[in-house]
Amino acid sequence: STLMLQGFDYSTILLGLVIFLARVTDVSMGTMRTISIVQGRTKIAFFLGFVEVSMWLVIITTVIHRISGHPILGVFYALGFSTGNVVGIILEKRIAFGHIILRIISTESGEKMAEKIRESGHAVTTFQGEGLSGPVTMLYVVCRRKEQNGVVQIVRSVEPDAFYTVDHAGSVSKIYRPFMPQPTGWRAIFKKK
Predict the structure, then answer these.
(1) 146 CB-contact burial (10 Å; exposed 0-12 / middle 13-18 / buried 19+)
(2) How much is the pTM?
(3) Is the pLDDT of residue 97 over 80?
(4) How far apart (Å, rounded) are the C-alpha atoms in residues 107 and 151?
(5) H helix runs in the chain, sequence order
(6) What residues contact 39, with CB distance under 8 A and at least 6 apart?
(7) pLDDT grade, residue 5 (50/70/90)?
(8) Which DSSP letter does residue 108 get?
(9) Most buried pick, 22, 109, 157, 176, via CB within 10 A?
């Protein structure tokens, strides 16, 4: 005696939800894998690709055997795919792998801005240039993507109307990271080699 819910039994709806969640998971991994490939992160791409395809095989075999009798499973599958793309992009932005190149053009306070950015622990290279309305200072900063918002906040605090662009850095030979205090207590023990 199966209970019916508008023509669908509860087990079909439950299976549909499982398919949806599994599809969101594997497509999110696929999105992050693609971004990892573009950034040259081979180990992460390998791991994500293996898990993604393993999950996909399980999901697709489940759906194919049952979709003719329960077309609603195809809808859950498609919704999971679409949602997974969005979730993967959001996750990748939060994890923020890689480095960025921040180019800033200051018309007023370039040296002060460079000093503030250096005080935060980032290396800055400055150039003098000529803009539409006169001399400008160009600042060049390479930092981790996770640190981008902090650097931009410093820029805006010094000169709210400063123009800047952000580009992804394919590879970086050396980067200066913000000063981190030396670990103390039990953290210092694990830090030692």
Answers:
(1) middle
(2) 0.60
(3) no
(4) 18
(5) 10-38, 42-66, 72-95, 110-119, 148-158, 186-191
(6) 97, 98, 168, 170
(7) very low
(8) S
(9) 22
